[in-house]
Amino acid sequence: MNLNIFLFSLTSMTKFSYLVIILIASQFATSQETYSSNSIPSELLENANAVIRKNDVQITIEDYDKVEIVTNRIVTVLNKKGLGDIKAGESYDDDTNIKSIEASIYDDKGKKISRIKSKDFNDVSAVSNGTLYSDNRVKYLDFTPRSYPFTVHFESKVVYNSTAFMPAWVPIEYFYASTQSSTFKVINETNVEVKFKESNLEGYSGINKKGLLSYEAQNLEAIVPQAYSPDFSTYGPMVRIALKDFSMKGVQGSNENWLDFGKWMNESLLIDVGELPEEVIIEIKSLTKDAKTQKEKAKIVYEFMQERSRYISVQVGIGGWKPTEAEKVHEVAYGDCKGLSNYTKALLNEVGITSYHAIIYGDRSIRNIDKDFSATQGNHMILYVPELDDEKDIWLECTSKTNPFGYLAGWTDDRDALVITEDGGKILHTTVYPTSQNKQNVTAQVNLSADGMATAQVTMETSGFQYQLRDFLQSKTDKERNIQYKQFWDHINGLKITNSTFKNDKEQSVFSEVLEIIAPKYASKSGSLLLFEPVMFSRNSYVPAKYEERNYDLKIDRGYVDFDQYTIVLDPQLTVDALPNKVSLETKFGSYLLEVNELEGNQLEVKRKLQINNGLFSKEDYKDYRNFLDEVAKHDKSKSVLKVGK
């Protein structure tokens, strides 16, 4: 062999080996950079509990009843609060096939510390406390970190034969989570039309549309919630999609608009779920036979359902929107929101009362069904009963064992719902509780001794929205109630509840509390003076945060009125030295009145009224609203001065 040729070959092989080594090292470095928390831009770490490093979702529509979704997701969790942002799991049932699922865990430096194959994912029932949904299961990653930060790379491929529930693209997933990269792409291999709606994409420079139903987002900083803001869905960026022709549990549907969609639901999903056993039909007819009005009948049915059924929590998407058969719910005596609403509807039907299923967003924050985009929305089902006895409509929350008949406040009130009727879907608004109805009235007789001890008999009545803030106390133990009262009146040192009685008027949704209390050191001595705060009970100590920059409009979901009036009987050794001046504040957000007057017989009279008005105001108004609440808090803590001794 020619020596020159040999040396040339050896040199070439050496160069090739070096090249391979360089390529491997480069790939390793790139991999570490992908997963290392040190490579995250500093602006994405600010206010973040987790960083979505990558969230690529590709949806391939193969037919109206077959959709494949491929997810490639990398999340760096910065602290314990960010664990909920991992989202490494998939739910499945007879209509859903998880083709592949796996995850890898990386440490802070980007070094792989664990790989989780499909067989290593937890595989559990979607409902742990019932058998109604035994076919619905969840495969999820169960990982307990030893330290933070760490990174999870999750990948899945899932094929769905029920195509009504299509995922939305939400590039900013929620508060305190930033997004480094997110893509969303829909590939339509059929003639099925794909509806879509873009919301709140403008104003985010990192969001771009790459083509029809193809989007990408880069470097979106974490959003920090601000007090009294509208619901996140009203300003968070989102793209919703829906198929005009789809399948749900093997039933083909059409989704041109809410009317058609609702008609399909009524005729296809809800047609065979209302049968009841003969014995319960006989029982419910017997219970209602002496009812004088339709409303009285409906109330008997509702309370019958509450007494014999219990609620299990299942998301609306589990099992689709088709409720469990009423006969089955009666047999097992429990159900989710869909099952219990349908069971109540079937009972009402047997006594001649028409009612309709209603899909809604259940949440403390008020969120509407989007009336302009027909698709599977909502997370809850209630029941709509129109014009009983030619009076107002009634809505029934069927998951509560304690709610008064027709009471919705606090969870499903004042929002648009999708009502499924024989004529199709209709968007209707649920019960609104006006400010004047959301009352808390406190009356009291207080005795104040010369050593600062206060004893009082207090009567508190709450109604409207405020009813559900107090009625739960009736079911608590004395110990639990004492804890609640000490939290509610945390400004009263050494508070003791010596006696308590309750009255729950479910007809009017009014909850009454009569309490006897002792506060050994309510007033404090300063030489020959006794100082105390005359506003003892309904006190506003909450002042929302001050922001350098207010980003969102001011939203007050529910207005209310608090009114206190009580008499303070002073010990004979006490005389008035100074009382707070009368205060009257008027704003567009509400009003405040405080009067402390001296009466004959060595007594003081305290009157306080705070009214907060609901409404949507500009973000510029937030500062004035905060100042108003700050003034209220200051006046609620104003002091009276008494002299000790004659």
Outline the structure in words.
Residues 67-220 form the DUF3857 domain. This is DUF3857 domain-containing protein. It comes from Nonlabens dokdonensis (strain DSM 17205 / KCTC 12402 / DSW-6). It holds the Pfam family DUF3857. With 646 residues, this protein is α+β, with helices and mostly antiparallel strands. The chain folds into 4 domains: 1-35; 42-233, Immunoglobulin-like; 256-429, Roll (C8orf32 fold), CATH 3.10.620.30; 435-644, Jelly Rolls. Helices cover 19% and strands 37% of the residues.
What's the level 1 CATH class of the largest domain?
Answer: Mainly Beta
The secondary structure category is: alpha+beta
The average pLDDT is: 92
Inertia-based shape: globular
Kindly report the CATH topology of the largest domain: Jelly Rolls
Radius of gyration: 31 Å
> How many strands in all?
36
Protein name: DUF3857 domain-containing protein
InterPro entries: DUF3857 (IPR024618), Papain-like_cys_pep_sf (IPR038765)
Summary, kept brief:
The chain is α+β, with helices and mostly antiparallel strands.
Describe how the helices and strands are arranged.
Elements: H1 3-35, H2 42-45, E1 50-63, E2 66-77, E3 89-92, E4 96-106, E5 112-116, E6 122-125, E7 137-140, E8 150-160, E9 177-188, E10 194-199, E11 207-211, E12 214-220, E13 238-243, E14 245-248, E15 251-254, H3 258-269, H4 278-288, H5 294-308, E16 310-311, H6 326-332, E17 334-335, H7 337-350, E18 356-360, E19 380-385, E20 394-396, E21 416-421, E22 424-429, E23 439-448, E24 454-463, H8 478-488, E25 496-505, E26 510-519, E27 524-526, E28 529-532, E29 554-556, E30 560-570, E31 574-578, E32 583-587, E33 590-599, E34 603-612, E35 615-617, H9 622-636, E36 640-644
Parallel strand pairs: 1-9, 16-17, 23-30
Antiparallel strand pairs: 1-2, 2-8, 3-7, 4-5, 4-8, 6-7, 9-12, 10-13, 11-12, 14-15, 18-19, 18-21, 19-20, 21-22, 23-24, 24-26, 25-26, 27-28, 28-36, 29-35, 30-34, 31-36, 32-33, 33-34
InterPro entries: DUF3857, Papain-like_cys_pep_sf
Domain DUF3857: 67-220
Organism: Nonlabens dokdonensis (strain DSM 17205 / KCTC 12402 / DSW-6)
